[in-house]
Design goal:
The complex is a heterodimer of chains A (577) and B (319).
Chain A lengths: L2 H11 L2 H23 L16 H25 L2 H7 L3 H6 L4 H21 L6 H6 L4 H28 L3 H31 L30 H8 L3 H4 L11 H9 L7 H33 L7 H11 L5 H14 L1 H7 L2 H23 L3 H21 L3 H6 L1 H6 L5 H29 L1 H6 L5 H24 L3 H27 L5 H5 L4 H9 L4 H23 L12
Helix pairs in contact in A: 1-6, 2-3, 2-6, 2-24, 3-6, 3-8, 3-9, 4-8, 6-8, 6-13, 8-9, 8-13, 9-10, 9-13, 12-13, 15-16, 16-21, 17-18, 17-21, 18-21, 18-23, 18-24, 21-23, 23-24, 23-27, 24-27
Chain B lengths: L12 E10 L2 E11 L4 E6 L5 H8 L7 E6 L2 E2 L4 H7 E4 L11 H11 L4 H14 L15 H13 L5 E5 L7 H16 L3 E5 L3 H7 L2 E6 L2 E7 L3 H5 L4 E7 L2 H9 L4 E7 L2 E6 L7 H9 L3 E7 L4 H8 L6
Parallel strand pairs in B: 3-8, 3-9, 6-7, 7-8
Antiparallel strand pairs in B: 1-2, 1-4, 4-5, 9-10, 11-13, 11-14, 12-13
The chains are: A mainly alpha (577), B alpha/beta (319).
Chain lengths: 577, 319
């Protein structure tokens, strides 16, 4: 057996955090299942010829969504520090002295982490029994969804591994891993679509799904597909926004490539097993090719990194040139000096080009999501996905508050300076605000801009705005608390997400249910759709979790202050007792 | 640069029954230690003996489970803020931001110590010159060698001109030249009036560098005092090496008759004379031999090295 796998598995076996992550993964899926029970299946298109969605299929969709969310969020994070940590701790060079080849190291790392990820995926799997017993879930659907999730898992792990071989710092590696994952997913979908089209010249026939006249115009629904699918058509078809979070048969708006092919070539979904198999094979094949390419890339990078070298002079010169102000250099230096004197820790957080790029990057992400959603007239996407992405970013940023300082040992040095714990914490909070206030403001502005359209649709997204603003203010405290308590970053992330987002939401539902006995019953009795149910039960759902968040953050700030003042925190990296 | 005011009569460091436990493990047991002002104090012990724990308590990073510790008359728990201005703590790891420039790094810590901006630039230049890093002030820390990073750590410790330096293994991992240079810097700092507590495993260097030392094992103090007196602590009796012009056997016969002599042995033509007690005076040896008309070529006390002392007084037990 590959010794790298053995070592990784032994190390993982000693991590109590992995057990907690499995529990959290199961809890998320359980929550999704509960949400599915509370929100009946959306059959509004059935009278217009759309497929009738069964209860089982609907619940299966919820589980699929939750699993995809977990995979997309966690898979890159699991491997994003795999090679980088070995390099930081100078153990990669030691592996290089053994007969192990770089590819063995890359394979070992990916296999061990794949096993770890698989346990996270397996933990909530027993809950699949509920939709299966509810009926309406076909074998094709299960196979397609599992294949899709496995490809996504491999893609996420490969993205993390590739990123970790590029940079030494975990946060950079993590950001890069998510970028790789997004690009990889787009490429995967395009490649699988292209190869399927090129190899099999799929002929497009009229889709069985007829779009309802009242539905929002969507140029890419199957009814409007051209007679012969070009690669571009296929690319767009499989890149429907609903793809990632959609179940293939649960909604006419959600497709995966195998299902698209099945629908394109047959009169009814599932009636074309050959096309389905070909599509599935192309999809999985494209995923496998991408994974192999990623492993090859990692092996090459690992081979280069056997021997650590100081930064190249040209890179150092370029970095200096990028950092040096072009205009008013003297003024800028004085300003920096002034900032350093006023708040050295805030200066520390924002002194690098990477920090500035991160700030602007969040603005670009929000803008990109809104451009995409406005282009397709899907305001809900901008109003929900953009906050979700921002919330995810906040959780990672907050949980990693003192990570660098703990790893390089400077936290210990800072704590023997006259700086008080309150100053340390306040600086981190301000740094967090400086990073996320601009994108949150942009998000609020865009929501306000699109509000007219939402009102016409009878949907009010103010809950999301509340949620976003309160998270902006409170998550840093919760993240710092969890970040200092947890020895491993991923545990800190899970803890922050749990206490900062999931617990307030869960408590909100419980409080609302306790305050209003008809909370669940009224909309269910009225036969409301998922969206109507959401609107009916919304009340001030944004304000309630915000208050709960505030309470948790207040307690967290007191705890983290106490931990810092008494110097009690889990030391990582250089620091030790 | 000026040393912060404090109780002028108080020693640099004083601990009373200092105790620290980690769960069931007692890392320090009733440690009573005194370090005088201006001392270059060697703190010696095996791995896990409690050296780092003691230094971290003195650096206000750990709170004691029992007893108390004072730095220049200030309690490290009650008056921690004041103590932090008085000490410079260099842990046994670098603690650097590798993507920072050398001056940026020192400037940052200078700001953390609230040194005014106008003064920081000069202070950074001064400490860099002191540790011999002036030529590297524009370099990225990640590109510095281990020895240079160690010097940078020392420069960081000095940035706020502390009166007491707590240095945990400052020379570990350095090559011989870098070690010698580091020791020279420490001697220079002592001349400047700093009190330095240095924990190290390189005992031969501590012997030549320090004026006082303490030996600690399993959290308990075994010896504390002048480095010269460490021999007496380790030996039951003093011994002298004697070389005479003539027969060593004859000289031995003369010496064994004296009541002060516990024993005499001949080693490679020299006599090793062991006195009967630790407080014995070796002056009688020269007196006896010269009176008997023996020409004395060499008479010196048998000084065992600090390493030998350490091995004799400790049992190599760790926690």
């Amino acid at each position: 057996m590959n010794p790298v796998i053995q070592r990784e598995l032994r190390e993982q076996a000693r991590l109590p955090g992995l057990f907690r992550m499995r529990l959290a993964s199961a809890a998320v899926v359980l929550g999704a299942l509960g949400w599915g029970f509370l929100n009946p299946a959306d059959n509004q298109f059935a009278p217009f010829g759309g497929p009738q969605v069964s209860a089982g299929s609907h619940l299966f969709l919820q589980i699929h969504r939750a699993l995809v969310l977990i995979i997309v969020a966690l898979a890159p994070a699991l491997t994003a520090d795999a090679i980088a940590r070995e390099r930081r701790e100078a153990t990669l060079g030691l592996l290089g002295l053994t007969p192990l080849r770089p590819l063995s190291v890359a394979l070992g790392k990916s296999a061990a982490n794949a096993l770890r990820a698989l346990t996270l995926w397996l933990a909530p799997l027993p809950m699949l029994a509920v939709p299966m017993l509810s009926g309406g879930v076909s074998g094709i659907e299960v196979a397609t969804v599992i294949s899709f999730q496995m490809v996504l898992l491999c893609l996420g792990l490969s993205a993390g591994l590739a990123a970790s071989s590029v940079t030494l710092q975990f946060r950079r590696s993590l950001a890069l891993a998510y970028c790789f994952e997004a690009v990889g997913l787009a490429l995967l979908l395009f490649l699988s679509g292209f190869f399927t089209w090129a190899l099999f010249q799929v002929e497009v026939r009229a889709s069985p799904v007829q779009a309802p006249p009242a539905a929002a115009p969507n140029p890419w629904v199957l009814t409007q597909a051209p007679a012969r699918a070009s690669p571009q058509d296929l690319f767009w078809l499989v890149n429907e926004p609903g793809l990632i979070f959609g179940s293939p048969f649960a909604s006419p708006y959600t497709q995966t490539l195998p299902v698209v092919l099945a629908k394109l070539t047959a009169s009814r979904a599932g009636a074309a097993p050959r096309s389905w198999l070909l599509g599935l094979g192309a999809f999985v094949g494209a995923g496998a090719v991408m994974m192999l390419l990623a492993l090859r890339f990692v092996a090459r990078r690992t081979e280069r990194a056997w021997q650590e070298e100081p930064p190249r002079p040209e890179m150092v010169a370029l970095q200096r040139r990028l950092v040096a102000p072009v205009l008013l250099g003297g003024w800028a230096r004085r300003r920096q000096h002034h900032r350093l004197g006023r708040n050295p820790l805030l200066w520390l957080q924002h002194r690098t080009v990477a920090a500035a790029l991160t700030r602007w990057g969040w603005l670009a992400v929000v803008l990109a999501i809104w451009i995409f959603s406005l282009g397709d007239l899907m305001f809900a996407l901008g109003a929900t996905v953009a906050p979700l992405v921002l919330l995810g970013g906040m959780v990672f940023s907050a949980a990693g508050g003192f990570r660098a300082e703990r790893e390089n040992g400077t936290l210990e040095l800072l704590l023997v300076t006259p700086l008080r714990p309150g100053q340390l914490l306040q600086s981190r909070w301000l740094a967090h605000l400086r990073e996320f206030v601009p994108p949150v403001l942009l998000q609020l502005f865009l929501v306000a801009y699109a509000r007219g359209s939402f009102r016409r649709a009878g949907v009010d997204w103010s809950g999301w705005n509340w949620w976003l603003v309160s998270s902006l203010l409170t998550l840093p405290w919760i993240g710092l608390w969890r970040g200092l308590r947890a020895r491993h970053f991923l545990n800190a992330v899970v803890g922050t997400a749990l206490w900062g987002l999931l617990v307030p939401l869960l408590l909100t539902v419980l409080i609302q249910a306790a305050l209003n006995p008809l909370f669940f019953e009224t909309p269910l009795r009225a036969g409301a759709s998922g969206m109507q149910f959401f609107v009916a039960t919304r009340l001030d759902w944004g304000a309630i979790p915000a208050v709960i968040q505030l309470a948790i953050a207040t307690a967290a700030s007191a705890w983290v202050w106490r931990d810092l003042a008494s110097r009690q925190f889990a030391l990582g990296g250089a620091g030790r007792h | 640069m000026s040393t912060a005011p404090s109780d002028a009569a108080a020693p640099a460091v004083q601990t009373h029954e200092l105790t620290r436990t980690f769960g069931a493990m007692e890392a320090l047991t009733a440690l009573n230690l005194t370090v005088n002002r201006g001392d270059l104090f060697g703190f010696i012990g095996s791995n896990g003996a409690g050296k780092t724990t003691t230094l971290r308590i003195l650096a206000t990073f750990l709170t004691p489970s029992g007893g108390r510790a004072e730095i220049l008359g200030h309690d490290v728990v009650r008056d921690a803020d004041r103590v932090r201005h008085l000490i410079g703590y260099m842990p046994d790891f670098f603690g650097v931001y590798k993507d920072m420039e050398v001056t940026e790094y020192l400037d940052f810590f200078g700001a953390c110590y609230k040194i005014p901006a106008a003064q920081r630039e000069k202070t950074v230049g001064d400490v860099l010159e002191l540790v011999g890093l002036s030529e590297k002030k524009g370099s990225l820390i990640g590109a510095l060698s281990r020895g240079m990073q160690q010097r940078l750590g020392l420069a960081r410790v000095l940035i706020h001109d502390p009166a007491l330096l707590l240095l945990d293994e400052p020379a570990s991992g350095l090559d011989p030249r870098a070690r010698i240079e580091m020791m020279a810097i420490l001697q220079e700092l002592q001349r400047m009036g700093k009190t330095i507590i240095i924990s190290s495993h390189i005992l031969s260097e501590l012997q030549s560098l320090c004026n006082r030392c303490a030996i600690i094992e399993r959290g308990k103090l075994i010896y504390s005092g002048p480095i010269k007196g460490v021999n007496a602590a380790a030996s039951d009796a003093r011994a002298f090496w004697v070389r005479v012009d003539g027969s060593p056997e004859a000289a031995r016969e003369l010496l064994v008759q004296r009541p002060e002599t516990a024993g005499v042995e001949i080693v490679d033509g020299r006599l090793k004379v062991t006195l009967s007690g630790p407080d014995g005076d070796g002056g009688y040896i020269a007196d006896t031999l010269v009176r008997a008309g023996t020409r004395l070529l060499e008479l010196r006390e048998d000084e065992i090295g600090l390493e030998e002392v350490f091995l004799r007084v400790t049992k190599g037990e760790t926690q």
